[in-house]
Automatic annotation (TrEMBL):
SUPFAM superfamilies: 4-helical cytokines. The keyword Disulfide bond applies. GO terms for molecular function: cytokine activity; erythropoietin receptor binding; hormone activity; protein kinase activator activity. GO terms for cellular component: extracellular space. Coiled coil: none annotated. This is Erythropoietin.
Length: 192
């Protein structure tokens, strides 16, 4: 073996990540590498920090619905894997919708800030990549309730935000909370 034991496909995957492109042909367990998720969390925190002191151009002219990111760790550990997956998928979908709506509102602002637009664009791209990585992990299949399973799952808890800084705080919290918990457990189960 040479100096690098990496496969060309893995190298290509890492080259495509900075572009925010979904890596459909990448290794299915790439998200199990903690550095991958940490990269998205870092981007979310950077966006959150960049918008914390922002006053002009950071408020929306409407409220945007976002998922509740609070986690009751005791309840989460007792939750069935399918319920965890469902909560993560619903939250990811709601968050993607919220970020896309924020992108539209920012684009329609009278004087949109280019730096803010860049953070929103990175978040949109990051959420698409995370969705693809979770799909490769098999999370989407786990999220589909079985017909004989318990009656309908509890609906996703949501609330609204009216500023970009709050939207990025939710984005960061979701990645650090429910997404990290779910991928950690899914990766451990896959290693057994």
């Amino acid at each position: 073996m040479g100096a690098c034991d990496c496969t060309p496909l893995l190298l290509l995957s890492f080259l495509l990540f900075p572009l925010g492109l979904p890596v459909l042909g990448g290794p299915p367990r790439l998200i199990c590498d903690s550095r991958v998720l940490e990269r998205y969390i870092l981007e979310a925190r950077e966006a959150e920090n960049a918008t914390m002191g922002c006053v002009e151009g950071c408020s929306f002219n409407e409220n945007i619905t976002v998922p509740d990111t609070k986690v009751n760790f005791y309840a989460w550990k007792r939750m069935e894997v399918q319920q965890q997956a469902l909560e993560v998928w619903q939250g990811l979908a709601q968050l993607s919708e919220a970020i896309l709506r924020g992108q539209v509102l920012l684009a329609n602002a009278s004087q949109p800030c280019e730096a803010l637009r860049l953070h929103v664009d990175k978040a949109v791209s990051g959420l698409r990549s995370l969705t693809s990585l979770l799909r490769a992990l098999g999370a989407q299949k786990e999220a589909i309730p079985f017909p004989d399973a318990t009656p309908s799952a509890a609906p996703l808890r949501t609330f609204t935000v009216d500023a970009l800084s709050k939207l990025f705080r939710i984005y960061s919290n979701f990645l650090r909370g429910k997404l990290t918990l779910y991928t950690g457990e899914a990766c451990r189960r896959g290693d057994r």
